[in-house]
Amino acid sequence: MKKIFTFFIAALLLAGCGSTTKKLQQGNYDAVIDKTTKKLIRKADADNAAEMDRAFRMANERDLERIKYLKMENNPDNYDEIFSKYNMLKMRQQKVRTVTPLTIDGKIYSYEYVDYDAELISAKRKAADFFYNNGKALLENALQKDDYRNAYYQLMKASEYSGGQFAQIDELIYDARMKGISRVIVEVSNQGPLKLPPQVEDDLISFDTRGLGNEWVEYHLKHVDEDAVYDYAIIVKLLSIMVSPDETKDVDEIFNKRISDGFDYVLDANGNVMKDTAGNDIKLQKFKDITCTLVETRQFKSVEIRGEIEILSMNPERLMQKEPFGASNQFEHSSARAIGDVGALTEEALKKTQQEKIQFPTDVEMVMICTETIKPAIRNAIYANRQYIK
């Protein structure tokens, strides 16, 4: 058992070493540094120290060579990456300093401290200048939505790197954001013979628009103002609203029951009441049959709405896509009245007599009943075609 346990521990150690070696081979140096420094904090180990040392030196060499190349290329667009590389160098140095200087088996692991702050500040300022100038130029010369969106991202980067020190940068960011948004107006077009009150049509499209588009798409379920300009229009066309006539059906059911109806005395041949052996009068129980007819009135009315959504691009106006939708709903009510002896009714049948006949909903009320069913159908139709709105 002891040998098995020793073998198991050895296998675990080899597996751990193998995983860091593989990461080194893949160039995933920072993962190796992260893992080995955590182990070295708990316990000094020669293998982990050697792995950390190798990964630290190779990672720094790779980043410094990349920085050298980016600087030689002298492209203003590079300063974002240069800043990122210097930041990685600084964070990596901070991590290994948590376990160094370290002496194991006579070997000293210690690294000269490098102050990267000056390079970081310089790269940050140059990156901020680049993003600001580039974003501002994109905004001034924008021809389409994507230009404004790119300007927004560039100016946001400039604000992040500069700490908002550029004059009026917040106004520029807001301007790029407002001009980059695609606005969509959603409207109802009732083409059926049944005219609906405006509030019913408004309710049909009062659904949650979150998740229908990305951060650059804004849905309006009503016109915010007369001067609003929309990039897309979604027309919810109600092609048919079919409401059935009021339907009433009476169903009769007869209930029979035999119940006790007192008793009769047993008489002898002389007409006298007979006695049992104990001297008591002999009596026979009487029964009678009772009947009740339950007249159940069943009320039924249905509504079916069919339509389609049209997605239009407004600049210029053109139809991009059609998608059908539909929904249905029913009104059902039962009431009953009893004719005869209600004692013949079952408990369930008796409960039915407690329900009274009610008025049928109007056709418009039927549409309103269907509203909560049709809204998800409309939203799902829009969601299925969201790729057309950009």
Word description of this protein:
The longest helix has 28 residues, at 46-73. The two termini are 67 Å apart. The protein is of the alpha/beta class and 390 residues long. α1 (2-25) packs parallel to α3, α2 packs antiparallel against α3 (46-73) and α4 runs antiparallel to α5. The model is unreliable at 5-15 (pLDDT under 50). Helices cover 44% and strands 27% of the residues. Strands 3, 4, 5, 6, 7 and 8 form a six-stranded mixed sheet that branches. It has three domains: 20-114; 136-180, no CATH class; 182-258 and 291-390, Rossmann fold (3-Layer(aba) Sandwich). It has ten helices and eight strands.
Percent of residues in helices: 40-55%
Low-confidence stretches: 5-15
CATH class of the largest domain: Alpha Beta
Tally of DSSP helical segments: 10
Q: How many strands, what sense, and barrel or not for the largest sheet?
A: 6 strands, mixed
Head-to-tail CA distance between termini? 67 Å
What is the count of β-strands?
8
CATH fold naming of the largest domain: Rossmann fold
Strand content: 25-35%
Query: Mind telling me which CATH architecture of the largest domain this is?
Result: 3-Layer(aba) Sandwich
Q: What is the assembly state of the chains in this entry?
A: single chain
User: SSE order in H/E notation?
Assistant: HHHHEEHHHEHEEEEEHH
Mean pLDDT: 90
Mind telling me the C-alpha Rg?
Answer: 42 Å
Number of domains: 3
User: What is the global morphology?
Assistant: elongated
- The class by helix and strand makeup works out as alpha/beta
